[in-house]
């Protein structure tokens, strides 16, 4: 009888930092700028990413310093997951929070760190840095991130 993987046997709040971090599939969607309609609460994604996001890996180039360098950067933590309604439907943190399982393409299941890219779930090649925005963020709303 095989032991269940940690994401099935532990609560998010009980995971080690290494386990928690390994849940990230590097899709990059959480680092895209999002706009929320004040009246409806609807969240719209843009194709504009934080200036710290690496174009090729969709990983933060200054991960340890990100909240200092980008004061409105939201850390994904077990204690604040309930309030992060904007997480994409494919996000492992959201899926596990909601009692669902990881998708078959997730790196923890596939063993391939590039599986989100190969499955078309990553924003690699689909975004621009906020440093290159000309105009209002509303001009950059997209409908592909989910």
Protein described:
With 146 residues, the chain is α+β, with helices and mostly antiparallel strands. The protein has one domain. Helix content is 19%, strand content 11%. The protein contains 6 helices and 4 strands. The chain has helices at residues 6-9, 17-22, 66-69, 92-97, 107-110, 115-118; strands spanning 32-36, 43-49, 128-129, 141-142. A hairpin with a 6-residue loop joins strand 1 and strand 2 (43-49). The N and C termini lie far apart (36 Å).
Which properties best describe this structure?
146 residues; alpha+beta; 4 strands; Puta_zinc/iron-chelating_dom; UPF0260 protein MTBPR1_20368; UCP006173
Summarize the main sheet.
4 strands, mixed
**Poorly predicted segments:** none
Helix content: 10-25%
From the alpha-carbon coordinates, what is the Rg to the nearest angstrom? 16 Å
Can you tell me the overall shape? globular
How far apart are the termini?
36 Å
How many helical elements?
A: 6
Strand content: 5-15%
- Give the helices and strands as they follow along the chain: HHEEHHHHEE
Structural class computed from helices and strand pairing: alpha+beta
Oligomer state equals single chain
Mean pLDDT: 92
**How many E strands?**
4
Question: Number of folding domains?
Answer: 1
């Amino acid at each position: 009888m095989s032991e269940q993987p940690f994401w099935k046997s532990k609560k998010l709040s009980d995971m080690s930092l290494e386990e928690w971090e390994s849940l990230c599939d590097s899709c990059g969607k959480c680092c895209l700028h999002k706009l929320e309609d004040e009246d409806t609460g609807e969240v719209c994604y843009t194709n504009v990413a934080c200036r710290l996001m690496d174009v090729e890996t969709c990983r933060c180039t200054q991960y340890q310093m990100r909240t200092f360098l980008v004061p409105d950067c939201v850390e994904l933590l077990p204690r604040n997951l309930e309030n992060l309604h904007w997480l994409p439907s494919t996000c492992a943190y959201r899926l596990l929070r909601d009692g669902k399982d990881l998708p078959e393409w997730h790196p923890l299941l596939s063993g391939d760190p590039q599986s989100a890219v190969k499955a078309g779930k990553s924003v690699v090649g689909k975004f621009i840095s906020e440093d290159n925005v000309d105009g209002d963020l509303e001009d950059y709303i997209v409908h592909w991130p989910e």
